[in-house]
Amino acid sequence: AAEGTEGGSDRPTSDVDVLLANAGCERFVLRCVENELPPNLIHCLRLLRVLELQHDHAVAMRFQRERERRRAEGGNDGDDNDNDNDGGGNTNDGGGNTNEDDDSASLPATRPVSTRAAKKVSRLLCLLCADASVGEQLRPHLFGLLALSGASYPRSGVHIATAASDVILAFAASCLSASLVWFLHDRKMIVHMTDDVKELCSAAAPSASAPSNSRCLYGPDAEEAGLWVVALKTVVRLVAASCRHRCDELLRDYDAAGG
After folding, report:
1. Tens digit of pLDDT per residue, the chain (259 long)?
2. Three-state DSSP class for 8?
3. Does residue 66 come out as left (phi exceeding 0), alpha (psi in the -120 to 50 range) or beta?
4. Which end of the chain is more exposed for a tag (fewer CB within 10 A), N or C?
5. What would the DSSP string read from start to end of the chain?
6. Which residues touch 11 (CB under 8 Å, ≥6 apart)?
7. CA–CA separation, 199 vs 194, rounded Å?
């Protein structure tokens, strides 16, 4: 429903479009809070990340199956030559390895499937987070929201990290309170966010958190895609916003975590 307007029309075509079109109405935020829309929008962002991960994996698997089919067809054609000439077979094996590397390197980039949806969900959440009353409703859901800014993504899912970061910064600017700062401190959320940044900056994906067939970005690839900047900007600005509430606990957490 969130994917929105098709064909360049400005006419609302989804529930999110209707909500965005009526965001200026009286008691809009109140009605959204009464219907628990802010936490459900966070769930939407998390589901969009899962969608991009699944889509990227499906594209990679289709490409791999097609590559294996081509190899099998090529191997059958070359069986006689391999049997007649052992040296030629060795050469072909070497060539096969080279082709395998070339195929891996030429793995097609996956096109994102949720760019517009993520943009609209993020925009609506940012509008809602401009009202301080939303902060307390999001308290139980903050861990899931904050984790999105430093999570692992395939190249086609980088926009999810950016969308989540925009929401977190809007929350930090208008919804953060001394009570919520202490809540973030008690749950060690800044420590977890800092650890996520470190993991993102590592040269290789940790085996415990990423399967061997994962195409999530880490190290230089994550830096090139802008994930380092998104994750670091988010945690630093959140810590800076907390200091405005005469509480330096999150700053201490960030320092203790090696930030």
Report:
1. 444 434 445 565 788 999 999 898 989 999 999 999 999 999 999 999 999 999 998 888 888 888 888 888 876 554 544 444 444 444 444 444 444 444 444 566 788 999 999 999 999 999 999 999 999 999 999 999 999 999 999 999 999 999 999 999 999 999 999 999 999 999 999 999 999 999 888 854 554 554 444 688 888 888 888 899 999 999 999 999 999 998 889 999 999 988 7
2. coil
3. alpha
4. N
5. -TT---TT--S--SHHHHHHHTTTSTTHHHHHHHTTHHHHHHHHHHHHHHHHHHHHHHHHHHHHHHHHHHHHHHHHHTHHHHHH-HHHHHHHHHHHHHHHHHHHHTPPPPPPS-HHHHHHHHHHHHHHHTSTTHHHHHGGGHHHHHHHHTS---GGGHHHHHHHHHHHHHHHHHT--HHHHHHHHHTTHHHHHHHHHHHHHSSS--TTTS-TT-----HHHHHHHTHHHHHHHHHHHHHHHHGGGT--HHHHHHHHTT-
6. 5
7. 9
pTM above 0.85, yes or no: no
Q: Looking at this protein, which amino acid is placed at residue 180?
A: L
Contact 126, 167 (CB under 8 A): yes
CA 170 – CA 168 distance, rounded (Å): 5
Residues constituting the chain = 259
